[in-house]
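Weekly structure sync, notes
Attendees: PL (lead), two postdocs, one rotation student
Agenda item 3: pending single-chain targets
PL asked that the sequence for the first pending target be pasted directly into the notes so everyone works from the same version. It is reproduced below exactly as submitted, 210 residues in total.
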Amino acid sequence: MFNTGGRSVRLGLSNPTLVTTTPPVFSHDDIIAATTFSTWENVFLEALHTDNNSEKNNYLWPNSLPKALRRLSEIDHKPIEARRTLLNLLKEIRDYRNRLFHHDCIWIKIKTVDKQTAIESIREKINLIEKIITSISPVTNRALNAWGMYANARRVCSIAELSVYTNLNYQVPNITTPGLLGQLLHQTNGGKEFVPIMVQNEACIFYKLR
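Predicted structure, written out during the meeting:
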């Protein structure tokens, strides 16, 4: 709800009726979409939870957990542990997001000894994100799966994708070869990988979009 009286003061107007613009209306979806990671962490803090049955109606958790987490079992079968675990997962993903925004390395150094383990440490974060989304909204998770969001993220975070940028010795296909496109399509492994090729001395990528 917006206070037009307050807006009129900020705009230097003497009366709310002089405000000519209509205050915007935000849906619940708009509000949730604009909610920051830190807000979500604060929502799941201990201060909003009680184990006292006589006071549960006065607290957000655990009564609202089944509504907020449609698939609570993805996190934990015990509501109390589920909230605490989800809080830790959100913090982990937020910290990881911050590292990305500050252009820090995206692999987890303590778990990395080579290219494969570096890739696996990144994929762990993708798995955590999928787990959180599934626990909150299975419908959203199914949509993201249908759109190929997770598959595309895992394809990008792979040894095959890394080799695209570290190995420039690309194959040079003969464009007159019968069935060439079918051969290249087969090499994409069902759309899970890029196929780097050289065409007229230009580095190109063949990829199955859908």
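Discussion points:
- DSSP finds ten helices and two strands in the chain.
- The two ends are 44 Å apart (CA to CA).
Action: rotation student to compare against the earlier draft before next sync.
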